[in-house]
User: Fold these one by one.
Assistant:
Number 1:
Amino acid sequence: ELRGAIAGGQLLLEYQPTVELATGYPVIMEALVRWDHPERGRLSPFQFVPMADDAGLFSELGEWVLETACEEFSSWRRDDPSTLIRVSVNVSLAQLAMPRFSQRIIDLLIRKAISPSRLCLEIAESQLLDNSLVLGALESLRAWGIEIILDNFDTRHSSLDHLERLPIGMVKTDRSVTARLSERPRQ
């Protein structure tokens, strides 16, 4: 079913904004994939992304999300060239380890007439490993001006070493982590 959904237009992207507190304006729109299943209704990625991985469709799904997010972002820019918003897409360790992944991203940005500085790629901290291919891809993407965001950073279980050795420009953490900051003066 998922293979047919990718090819048959049942997938869509919804966008979650990151808002600048000082102005209240959105600065990043994160692309989140959804599946409009003909029988089960709208499915969240938690309901079908694990299946994509099991079915060997994870790369195809990831490519669809990247391509669609860049196409929609390009359309926004055509409608309002003055917009300062950037688009953010989650990428997996498997995608980052793919041969020539960095070049494919750059080729996509050129085709869609998007400046690399307008794209953010998010990788979940739980996926990070000491993998030279992944580190090379992250460094290459960052060198082009693409923002790398470490997603799901959790100071209780995280290695702060990730922040020092990886080419990360932003860190996203769960509200449960920041909510504790005011409870303990030391934090």
Number 2:
Amino acid sequence: RRRWFYVVLVLAVTIVVFGQSRVPLMFLVYPCLILVLTEIDLGWAALSTLLVALIAGWYTVHDRGPLAAVSNNVSTGWKAAVLQLFLATAMFTLYLISIVIGNLRKIQGELRQIAALHKLVVDNSRDIIVLGDLEGRRTYVSPGIKALSGWDPADLVGRFVRDVVHPADAAELEMAMRALRAGSEGGTLEYRARKRDGDYVWVEGSLRVYRHPSTGRPIGFLNTVRDISERKRS
């Protein structure tokens, strides 16, 4: 039913356009055909173009429609040529738009695959990935944080890294963040992170700065956090 609605819309507009000769409204057919293409597919747009050709051809042969208003000095053959040009332009426009839509859908499919692969890796990694700005405020925390500390990612996003760091280790972490702001590419440090139940767990954080893809300007940090409690106990 949804498909037939758009086809009926094309038919109705075509009949209105070619059923009168007072106002040249042939251009109104184009957006209707494009609507069929974007909402359904190229096959239905081609079918709709064929129906437009049949209706427009019938009116033109019977000397009716916008082309009938052309001077009588113009032969019927020339009027038919103008109609063919109109239909060819419509088909060429639909073809170009279909190429663009096809490329966009291909890119979207590739992006979905990349996103699914990223989610698979992040969700099943024992390491925790943390993104944040250069002030130390988190913007992303991977789901692995739940198994390590009991925190949900939403509990930590928007909060500063130092909020869950042991007071004795906060100064070292702050020095590392200052180094990133000063132009350092990153480093590795060990510190104690507070769990949701109030206990602390030893972790190793590998801090790296990340840059804006266009300007290359440092805009945040990437911290890969790993549980090193067993190493500390050894």
Number 3:
Amino acid sequence: RWLSTLSQAGLGGILADEMGLGKTVQMLAFLQGQYRESVSEPALVICPASLVYNWIEECSRFTPDIPAVVLAGNLSQRKKEIRKIGTERGGWLYITSYDLLKRDIAFYEGMTFSTIVLDEAQFIKNRKTAVSKAVRVLKGSHRFALTGTPVENRLSELWSIFDFLMPGYLGSITS
């Protein structure tokens, strides 16, 4: 309900909690609601490579009716799957890793997602990295970040995550 309220208000949000307390399941519940409401644009989850197949497993367990697709493999395979995004031949929920998104960002040009989810959002805490710049290029109506890792007492790290969630809301990093 909280995630839905945020999205209806046009805000992004962070689910920050200890590992194993259900952040993935909570996000899947939100995505299930979006899917059942026939939201036409697909959703995208970006996570560490070690969690990509965990996400697909959790999808099959908790939201089996959502067509979920892993964007992995070699460049040719990824390009083929990315081209299907938003078409009847594709899925609705796409899952990729931060590293592959960074490499493939040009293929996402012109696409709009209903929801973009960053799992382990500390991956973008440094606004100057290629990964952080890549996620900001993506277009999405709703943006959420999941993290079990606390911010390390630097406002710039929190600013970087919020700048992804709600671009421009906190002003520039220097203001």
